[in-house]
Amino acid sequence: MPSEMSLEQFFARLWDDYTAMTPQASRIHDALVADGETIVNDHVAFRTFDRGPIRLADLEPHLLALGYTRLEPYDFEAKKLRAWGYLPPRDDQPRVFLSELKCDELSAPAQAIIDDLVAQIDPARIASPEVMWAGRLWEAPSWEAYNTLAEESEYAAWLSIIGLRANHFTISVNQLRHTPTLASLLEKVESLGLSINTSGGRIKGSSEVLLEQSSTLADRMPFTFAGGRVEEIPTCYYEFARRYPDAEGRLYQGFVAASADRIFESTDVRREHAV
Ligand code: OOG
Ligand code: NI
């Protein structure tokens, strides 16, 4: 699939869409820039359903057209997800984490809700890289449908109302001069009045697994469900990652499934298990 879009254009458009949904990301970004930092993105992440015309295999060609290459797959049994990590064509561009929900593993009612959403997608939309920040490609679901999904999969519920866009950008902590550790950066983020995802601890991973990660709790905004009911829902979050060199002295490039498993929870609408 030929892409007319440069990497710079792709990520500039993706960032604009993301910050419109995620004002906290602009606040954090701008506060660090005001401190004299240059922000480098470690990675961005996308979510999708393995149904209809937006399966991981349908979206991946846009990444490949931009010069990305597959690094390794990941599986999240409990969350019913599979994912791939991708390497950028140039070191100054972010890695990509692309996941999809294994819809077959949901109940029949939840699958029926998702089938109804993906059936509304105009397949022509998938041909353009702009689909990666197209948002919802279907009408808003009802509050009841959203809750049916949330009971089985927070990921499914989130995707049903937020659609395709960057789920998060991630600041590379390695490049920060004033807050070069996760702990110091988290203090800075909290000083802006923002909350951290504590599921699995404030800092997930370690130097032993060559990757430390933290994230905010997703921003929230009012959303109008089908039928007109308005509720405050989680949108997107910001992540922070610090990578360590491996035995050969090369910076680790992959993701860490056990940490990712908890980072997904940054968008949970039901927070009781996220302690
Ligand atoms: C992705 C969660 C995993 C990481 O860096 O391990 C992740 C998501 O919330 O969709 O971002
Ligand atoms: Ni991430």
TrEMBL record:
Its cofactor is Fe(2+). Coiled coil: none annotated. Its EC number is 1.13.11.93. It is an enzyme of class 1 (oxidoreductase). Keywords: Dioxygenase, Iron, Oxidoreductase. CDD domains: VOC_like (cd16350). Pfam families: HGLS (PF07063). It comes from the Bacteria. InterPro entries: HGLS. PANTHER family: 2-OXOADIPATE DIOXYGENASE_DECARBOXYLASE, CHLOROPLASTIC (PTHR31136:SF5), DUF1338 DOMAIN-CONTAINING PROTEIN (PTHR31136). Belongs to the 2-oxoadipate dioxygenase/decarboxylase family. This is 2-oxoadipate dioxygenase/decarboxylase.
